[in-house]
Prior knowledge:
alpha+beta; seven-stranded antiparallel beta sheet; about 30% helix; about 30% strand; globular; disordered N terminus
Amino acid sequence: MKPTAATKTRLASFGSAAVRDASIMNASVSAPAPVVGAPFEVPSSWIDHNEHMNLARYADAFYIGARQLSDALGFTREFKERTETASFAANLSIAYRREVRAGMDLRVESRIIGYDTKRIHSWHELVLHDDTIAATGELLGLNISTATRRVSDMPSEALARLEELFAEHEQLPQPDGVSRSISLDT
């Protein structure tokens, strides 16, 4: 599926505010196991002086995946306003596997690796049109009370949806590279 001209225009002017554009994050999301986002074409504005996708744009792409996963869980803006909760990223680790260039088609596939009442450990893969994994993103998200701005337990309805989706995701093979560490030792 190719993005519309309007989506291409929004992606071309991509900035942190544009990441939250619902037409990008909510388009054709199929859930679950894993949650697969709509394909999109890498805009030329995401390309750096090395003629490949700038490293910061990988974080943008994984943010799209995290939002799609949140939407699949029902953690919408309305839900967060009603329950006075928000999701904050505590840690994002990106591993680059293949070079990505302008015009390539990508999609983000996401799954839950683990969770507790306050945290979600998720895994995201940036996948090329030929199903090659271009990069992986491992994210630790925190549930935050918007009243106190502190880590807090998720509402029970959120935990119920999380448990249901996790039950499907834990049946998938463990992704290669989960909880990896960085070292010069081989």
